[in-house]
Write a structure and sequence with these properties.
About 25% of the residues lie in helices and about 25% in strands. By secondary structure, the chain is α/β, with parallel strands linked by helices. It folds into two domains: about 150 residues, Quinone Oxidoreductase, Chain A, domain 1, CATH 3.90.180.10; about 150 residues, NAD(P)-binding Rossmann-like Domain (Rossmann fold), CATH 3.40.50. The mean pLDDT is about 95.
């Protein structure tokens, strides 16, 4: 019962700020004893946590759109859990909740900081971290609001086999794209994009210059570009755009571990003559679209029209290896760390 006993949890802390690619020794798994929960708090047993590319930026000091993780403090990130104790009428025991208290097995939280989620029959709780969570909303907002997608567009998606890109491509296809082209990092991912997700074409960016492969896949140019990679991919997209092409810039994972500033696209001058629009965005600025997104995407998931794939690692001990593997492209679809079985 809340207030009767203290609670010991296992938590990952940032041990050091990395220079370049993060290493296992930049992290530390510790046991933390928490004070007794108080009125208005809940105890959440985590079922699954998310590892995401943006978390690499949180390992750096300095101001960014997401607060930096502090050295020697527990890291934060999206997680889904069940409430096992509660002193809040708004968040009852047994509720499925979304939290920002990932990287631990159990958390004591103020009830106002968790979001109670609907129970969706047939949909695993972890989907709230992927297709029905932040990556899904990122795909929806980026494609329809930022890139102003319309039926008949030719769409190019970089990092197309990842959590966001795989959803972007499918949403474009399901909403009438003339063609959907994706880039990925392995032959297996390329086959998945074309054979299972219905992409018109896909290529492995290791097989040659991105611009050359994109020109072969989209000989008449592209109208929309959804960017998860940056660098060479962004330059190639600018070169392939038709007049009034629109780009939604979501991420630049190719430069996340860079120790020196990455060179910018060398063909920015094309933006003027072709009247192009490139718009960077952060999903948190588009929370107003969440209701529409959930309403439209949930039926696509339950019907199987939208294919969902997770790369799952088991146990809190695997959180850091999963994160490091993610940064090297070791995931297909959403990378999830499963922390406990759902007893509901």
């Amino acid at each position: 019962m809340i207030g009767d006993v203290s609670l010991t949890t296992r938590e990952w802390q940032l041990a050091a700020r990395p220079h370049g690619e993060p290493k296992p020794e930049d992290f530390r798994l510790v046991e933390v004893e928490h004070p007794d929960p108080t009125e208005g708090q809940v105890v959440v047993r985590m079922l699954a946590m998310s590892v995401d590319p943006y978390m690499r930026g949180r390992m750096n000091a300095g101001k960014s759109y997401a607060a930096a993780w502090e050295v020697d403090e527990t890291m934060q990130g999206g997680a889904i859990g069940r409430v096992v104790e509660s002193s809040s009428a708004d968040v009852p025991v047994g509720a499925l909740v979304s939290t920002n208290a990932g990287w631990r097995d159990v958390a004591v939280l103020d009830a106002r900081t968790v979001q109670v989620l609907p129970e969706l029959p047939g949909i695993p709780p972890s989907y709230h971290l992927g297709v029905l969570g932040m990556p899904g909303l990122t795909a929806w907002a980026g494609l329809f609001r930022l890139a102003e997608f319309k039926a008949g567009d030719v769409v190019f998606v970089s990092g197309a086999a990842g959590a966001v890109g795989s959803i972007v491509g499918q949403l474009a296809r399901l909403h009438g794209a003339a063609a959907v082209i994706g880039s990925a990092g392995t032959p297996e991912k390329v086959r998945w994009l074309t054979e299972e997700l219905g992409f018109t074409a896909a290529f492995d960016y290791h097989d040659g210059p991105v611009a050359k492969q994109l020109a072969q896949a989209a000989p008449d140019g592209i109208d929309v570009y959804f960017d998860n990679v940056g660098g060479e991919h962004l330059e190639a997209a600018i070169g392939a755009f038709n007049e009034f092409g629109r780009g939604a810039l979501c991420g630049a994972i190719s430069s996340y571990n860079a120790t020196e500033p990455a060179p910018g696209p060398r063909n920015m001058g094309l933006m003027v003559g072709r009247k192009l629009s490139l718009r960077g965005f952060i999903v948190s600025d588009h929370a107003d679209m969440r209701g529409e997104f959930i309403e439209k995407v949930t039926p696509l998931v339950t019907s199987g029209e939208l294919v969902v794939r997770e790369t799952v690692r088991e146990g809190l001990d695997q959180a850091v290896p999963a994160f490091l593997d993610l940064l090297r492209g070791g995931n297909t679809g959403k990378m999830i760390v499963k922390l406990a079985d759902d007893q509901a």
